[in-house]
Structures are given as structure tokens and as C-alpha cells.
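User: quick one
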Amino acid sequence: MKIELRETNTERIGKLLGDLRQRGLMNRSSEWFKRNELPDIIKDKKYQAYRKEPVIIRRAVAIQAMLETMTNEKISKHTHSFEIEDGDLFLGVLPMGSNGLGKVFPNYLTEDEKRISSLTNRTETALLGHNTIDYSNILEKGVKSVIEQCNEKLELLNAKDAFFDYEKDAFYKAVKISCKSVIEYAERFAEKAEKDAMHAKTEERKNELLDMARIARKVPENPADTFHEALQSIWFVHLALHSSMNYMSLGRLDQILDTYLQREVDQNKAMELFENFIIKTAWRLNFTTEYLVEQDHMDHNAALGVHPYYLDQRAGMNNFLQNVIVGGITPDGNDATNDCTYLILQAFENVNLSTPGIYVRLGKHSPKKLFTSVAKSFHKTKNLPSILNDDVLIPAMYNALIQDISSNDDKKQYHELANDYCVDGCWEPIFNGKCDWTFGMINGMTVLECTLNGGATLSSNPELLKGEKLSPLTGKITDYKSFKEAFKTQIQFFVDQSAMTMYLYYMLDEYIIPSPLISAFFGSCMEKGRDKSWNGAEHTIGGTILGGVPDMINTIAAIKKWVMDEEKYEMDDVLDALKYNFICGNESDNKTQLKYDSIKLDFRTNSPQFGYDDEYTTEIAKFILDTYYNAVLKSKKLADKVFLNPPKPEDEKEVFALRKVAGYFGMAMKEIPGYEDFDIKFTAGMGTFEQYNWQGVGNAASASRDSGEPLAPNFTPVSGTMDKGIANLLNTFKKLELDRFAAGVITDLCLDEGHSHIEVLEAILHKFIKEKGNMLTVTIGSREEYQTIYELAKSTAQMEDREEAAKLLGKYANIVVRVGGWNAPFITLPLSHMENYIQRPAEYKS
Amino acid sequence: MDIKYFNIDWISNNDGPGKRLVLFLQKCHLECAWCHSPHSQGECSPLLFFSGLCIKCGACVDSCTSNVHTIINDVHQIERGLCLLCGDCIKACPSSNEEKGALVLPTKSVDVNILYKKLRPQLLMLKDIGGITISGGEPLLQAEAVKLLLKLCKQDDINTAIETSGIISVKNYKILSSLVDTWLLGFRLTTNEEKIDGKLLKIFSESLSYLSKLPNTQILARIPVIPNHNTFDEYYNKVLELLNNNNIQNVDLLKYNAHTSHYYKAIGKDFNDKELIDLTNSKYENAKTYFLTNKITLYEN
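Assistant: Done. Structure below.
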């Protein structure tokens, strides 16, 4: 592409952005679909024919019903879901919903299914997503090709046949219903656009609307030919997925769209289309926290991964699990950066919204120009994009894939898969459009407490005696060696507990939340005739994510220094000090209080800290990472032995007994028809997502924090300690061998405004890639500005005029920061997150 | 060999070409009225006390065997004459660590190799967009240690700069000349009176003449513009003459640093900078006009 890309917004984009900002500052609760407006596939007479159908068909019908409700003129009066915004170039509107606020969807589960699912963490509104769609097939062949394929497959299946595969039959029928419903949705919008065209204010707008109608009659049913058609096609499918609970990510759009871009004469017009596309996907944003309770649609099973755990709903209110990934290399190993990479980056830079997320894959193969473009975007947007290190993640993904592949196999296909990796809606790496993902999270600080306290938390509750018993007795810690031994046992226990359930939870999905609309476009589902939730995906990854690692390192370093090396304190005194938050309950016991004060002081200000590249903390970090990584590999071995592989005859009795202990009475997964090639690849990663505040709430005091205070976000040095040169942190990464961690290790840098020179940011980027960091986000801000907004947020919380309060804060709506798993407008953060952010910017003296 | 420093700026935009790491060395033989690091002048910095960060817990009072600290009526007093610079109060202070906080002993004496190991990652990161600047204090007072450090830098092909007063014997510059890419030369031709000091001028001219003739070396002339000290015509004329004699066509005019009182307060020295501040900016503008009309350009980084 020869021409300069536009760096300012067009009138149209400016208007649409303004509309979104204005809407986001108002009370959006009325835009939600009410429960009684949604059909019920089980109760409504209209659907009575489906009541006894397999759950996958009922779910497909629910998808159809949802898309129909979204284009109901009457309901749209308050949901605005069947409208075309003035100036908008795309048809279709996403219903309200988010990771933090929950979603709405028609019920398709029977009473019995719902009651029995109370034993699990899944219901009809359980959150799905955490995957990407590879849109290339949809654009090249159209959704109609999937329907044709269903018809062909269904013709071969005969209900009268003795070996009739009713599950496959149901699968293809369900896929067909879901795909058709998307095409019908597009057609209804085409009609709407034609109607609106008749009353268009200008001839220009009339023509636009007529062209939009033409496109909506063509895609997603048929292949796309132009850039506009391609984007509209992606938008319809993305919208249909997100309307039907499947919060799927957008994948490697530069790879998919470049062909269409090359056909466009006017690149800046193409960029306007992409900017418009970004705004469409961001249309659900709330820019104020004033009206959140009314919008809370979360139910008890809003679970992610294997444990029922609670989200920080407010921090996740604007999280939609949708990312765009650009750059990287092609499956055959060549640099994949193209014209569309730069166009997409520039569009994100111009629009600067917190969603969708934009990730750039960088590596030694990337052109220097791409580094410069990213640095420029950091400088301008202060938060976009996020970075994935190809030099680290490709080997990590490849090694995860070939875990149990024999050395003689042809590895080419695995190289291609690893080269084509993506991240899902947060930052977990997956294989592009082919890979199911499930995960478990572990709070590392809880593991550490149990290590130090012999299997119990450091709880101050006297009724729990030594503490809450969570894990095996490992005895007292007497020296660093005994600490290491105990830690190995403890981390294995917690990893087993989390990782081993992945097989069991995987098996749940097909009976509660099958995904026919994803399966239509996903991996080998169509070929196999199996839903994504039923080994339809070509690969499945089960990631274990360890949180609080920087806090673990600091705490172990302080204990090692003061208890083990210098012998200034007794271990028991330190544990008591942490347990009681450095406060001696007995006021007359001045001696103990003085001891606690001294421990706190030495731990807080006189101990080594992670992030400065010193040998002391690096040794500890390496020990934690090695032990944890090996624990995950060990878990995989046992899980495979018990659940996955058919046992050897001599092991049968033992394995059957082990299954029963786990509450599983079935056969080995590979023995289940359709599961012959099944395998969950266990991967390890480190981070907290937005949970660093909440995870910290349950933990005793530690080296860097009081009891209940937040943990360090993701794999980032403790807030306020980034003051000895960014490069010293980056330099640590290579020593930690982060290319083992295929579930991602993400560092969230927050830099003071002073760093905001393109050359400096580019130097940081090069260093990060070279030193083999894993993933990186950059937020640029100043303590003063964060403090100002925080004070304003606190004072407006007392105001009577809530609209005025929203407006006052709304002035800062364009300040976006990283919140663990995603980016969010600063003004929408909980106060506790704001407090944490004020401490964060790494200083820059000048 | 040890090197004595009191501060590191990990990235700076104002100390030489590009973005640079700046190492500030302890000790200076001059006492400029406008010096913004008064604690750098002696062999070792006195205890710095930043009262805004003090929580008045009294831990320092208890820890000090020399009775340096007292807190009476919520006022933290420091009896500096008694201070042995032992650092016990810093270890006891919950608002301070080794590097920063309410109480700081900034001067550190570290083996050059160990220090370089600490600086190296950042220097390699900045290599293509800047380099290292060794500032002070007066770095030339530790010429041998600086030489070792610069050698290490040059092994990594790091761009090097030294900020110096020029008021030190040429033989010191000779020790370093082959290792320095840029000299940041502060023009300081006055003592603390408003007239040119002949003795200073002589040493400075010799240094300048030596440095400006070095091959492949850049000179960055830094001219402080401080009212009541060096903003008079005779001064500018002299500067211009020096520039012209040594073929220097570019100057960096430096305004008085408004945050200077910060460190004076921290070392407990009275300091009044009223007469140093160029309130209306007119002195600065005059200087600018003077040099521009005499065909000298202004430096921009």
C-alpha cells in the first residue's frame, strides 16, 4: 500500500463515536431484553414439537428464537436492536450483555436438566466463548456451504437404518437451523435498510442504505467479494454468536481480510469501514457505573473454566471476550505482516476504544516498521495494542501439542498449527479456529500460605485452630530446603485439584451447552458430525493459570532473607505476624507488637523484590516456575492414566478404582465412540486477569501487602516497585524460560507519561521480544491524573444528581487502562482498582 | 575499582543526544549558586530528609544511637552535626527503603564492574536511541573509575557522554578523551558574583580548546541563564568569543531549575532562590536573541 493512512477520524466515525459515548453515559438498563420478551423453547406452545428433541436441537432453536426476537419491531422500541444508526455502514445490532453483567438468552433446558445441573457450574446462561473463529471459510464459501454440507450429510443418515447415528443427525440438523437463522436475520435487516432508504435524508445516505441492503442479501449466505461485504459477513456471524451466548473472539483478521483490502481502490475508505466495524463491536459499552445494578443479569452459574468462581463483575462490565489478532507468521512460517495489519492498527489507534482488544504478534521475523507502528499507537492511545511474543509462544504452543506425539510422526502439521496460534477473548493462547479451551485458576498466595503453614491457610480465626485446612500436612518449615520440599507437595496438590477436573468438566458441556453455531465453522466439527463440546474441535487445551506469582516471590525472598539467612526472626513469629496482619491482639503485649512492627518493616522496605533482575529473587522465581510447570506435566500424566487412556489389562483394577474415587464411573474417554482421538493438552500459564483485587481479599498479609489487599496484577512486579529501569525487569524474563508456558504469562507495564516517546516505547518493545518475554500490555498514564479521577469518582459518588455525576466523570471516558484480562475505561473501574492504579506508573525522571 | 555515585536516571530526555541513562557521580569542587544537587558536592551526601513522606512514627528516633532525630510536637528535627551516616534510621523507617523514601543516604560506592552489570540491560535497550551520560557532581574527579566504566560501555558499543564543568585540568580530560562521544560542557565563567573570573576562564578555555579539537567528538555547549549571575553582556560576549574560537555553532540555553530548593530543604540548608528565578522569562529571551543574532543556533534534542 503506497498511500499514507489517515490519522484522524472522518465525520462519520466522529459522529458514531460521539453517539456511542453519549449512549454509554446514559442508563442503558432499558436496552436489555426482558425475560418475558424471550421465548421459552420448553414452555411455549409454538415450540412444543421441540420439547423432546436432543438438547443441541433445542439450543439451535433457541438461537433462532433469539435472533428473531432481536428483530421484533415492538421490542426494539426499548432494546434498539432493530435499528440502523444514522451514518452506520453495517446492519445488525448486538444485544446488551457482557462478561461482568451477564447475558440474556431463551431457555431451552427442561426442568430436570436445570435441576440436575445444580450439581455443576453450567446452565443455559453459562458463559461460553474463549475461542476464536477462523472466518476465512465463511468469506470464501458463504454460510450456505455449511448448510449444503449438512444436507449432504443428513441425506446419508437414515432413521430406519439399524446403525442410525441419531447424534450426528441431531448435530447436522442443529447446525442447519442455526446457520439458517443467521441468514434470515440478515435478510430482515436488508428489508429494514430498504425501508429506511425510502425516508433517507440525503441521496447519498439513500444509496448507502440500498447498498447495505444489497450486501445483507448476499452475505453471510454467499461468499464475500469486497472489503465491505467481508466485514459485514464477519459482523453478522460475530453478532449471531455473541447473541447466542458464545462470546467468540475475532481471530487473525488481517490474514483473512487482506485479499479483500487489495481489491479496494480507496484504502482510507476501507479504513473507515474497519473503524465503523470496531464501533459496532463496541456498541455495548457502558461509560458510567451509575446504572449497573439494574443491568446485572448474572446468574449463579456464570462460571468460566472448571471451578464455579466469582467474577469481579464491575471490573468485567465492559468485557466482551472479543479480540482481534494481527501480525505474526503464516502457518508455513513466513512473516504474516501485510497491508491490512497496518490498516487495522491505524483504525484501532484512531478509534481508541477499550473493546475489541487488539493484539499484535511480534517476533524476530517482524518488520521494523511494525514495531514502530505499535510504538506510535502506544504513544497516541496510551493503551493499545497488546503484544504477543511469537519467539516465545510458538515454541510453547508447539511443545504443548507434541507432548505425547512419538518422535517419528510427521511434525509439519503441528508446526503449522503453532505458527497460526491466536489468543481468545482474554489472552489465553489457542490454535486458531480449531481448538477448544478450558481452564482452571490457582491463587499462588494460598498455595504459599499452605506451604508455610503445613497445609492450612494463615487464618486468624481461632476456631480454625492452625488455619483453614485446604491441603496435605507438610509439616514445619525449618530451612529453605524443607520449604522447597513442602512447596513441591503443595503446588502438586493444588494443580491436581484444578487440572484433573478438566476432563470431567469437558464432558458436561455437550449435555447442557452444546454450540451448534460455533461448530458450524469450527475445526473438524462438520467433518466429524460432532459438536465442539463433543470432541468436534480438532484440539483441546486445558490451561492452568497461577496467580500472585510476584507476591509469592517477594514473600519467599523476605522469609529467606530474614528467617533463614540472617536468622533475625523465628519462622513462627513471622507466620503469626502475617496471620494477624502485623497487629498483636493483646494490647499489653508490647514486646510482640514491636516484633511484628519490625517484621513488617523488614519485609516491606528492606527485602529483595521481584523485577530488579537480582540473583536472589531470580533464583526463587525460577524455583517456583520450574516446580509449577513440572506439577502441571505430572497432573497430565495421572489424568490421562485415569480418565483418557484405556488401561492395560494389568492396570485395569487400579484405574477403575481411581476413576471411582474421582466420582467417575464411565469408560476411558478414548473408548467412548467419537472420542477416539480425544486429548486435552495441559498447559501452564501465569496471571490473575482482573481478579488480583479479589484474590487478595482472601489472603493473609505478605511481604508487599497487608491482609486482604490486592495481589500484583498478572505477572507484573508489585505496584509501585517499577523504579529501577524497565530493562531490568525485561532482562529477568529470559532466565525464567517463559517459552514453556503455553497458557500465557502476561506482564502489564504501566509507564509514566514521561516514557511516551515513540523511540523509547519502541526500544522497550524490541527488548521485550529479545529477552523472550511472553505477553505484554502497556498503559501510559500519570499518578496525578489517576488521582484526580479517583478523587472525582469518590466525590461524585456522594452527589444526588446521578446524571450530573455521570457527566462529570464522562469527561475522562477516553482514558483507558489495562485491567488484567482486558482494557477498560478508567472511569468505570471499581475504586479499589483505581487506588491500585495510582501506585502503578513506573517513574520517569527528566 | 569503586565508583561513587548518588543517583541514576534510567531514562532522560535532557542529558545529551537521544534518550539516555544518566549516572550522577558524587563530589564537585565547585559550589554554583544555582546547583540543584547540593548534596552531590561533598565526599558523601548528608542524610536527605523529605518531610512530606515522614509519617512521624518515631522509629528513627529509637534506632539512632547518636540522637540525631527528635520528634517534638509533631515536628521531626534532625541534628545533622551528630549524624554518622550509619543508615540505621533508614533501615528502621517504614517509609524508606535503600533507594528512596523519607530518609535517604543516596551516595553509594560500588565496584565499577558490579555497577555496570546493573546498568547494562537498560543501556542495551537504549543503545540505538541514545546511550549513557555520566554527570555529577564533577565526573572528572573520578576520572580513573569513569575510564573503566566507559571502557565497559564501549565494549558494548554504547554511545557515551560526559557532563562536566570544564574547570578542571586538561590532564584529566586526556584520561578519557578517546572513550567519550559527546562532551556536555557547562559554561561557568563566574564565581558567585556577577563578573567573569579570570582564573576560571583560563582553565575553562584550555579545556574547551583541548576538547573541541578532539576527532569524532561532539561538544554540546550548555549555557546556564541565571539572573544576577551570568546574564550580563560582558558574559555573553565572552561566551561568544569562546564559541567562535573553537568553531562551535550551537548552544543549549538552560533555565534555572525551579525545583532546586527540594534538595536544599532535604539537607537542611537555608536556601533562597528568589534572585535566581527569571520570573518574566525575559533574561532567557534576551540570551536567545543574543545568540541567534550572532549566528549561533539553539540546541534541540
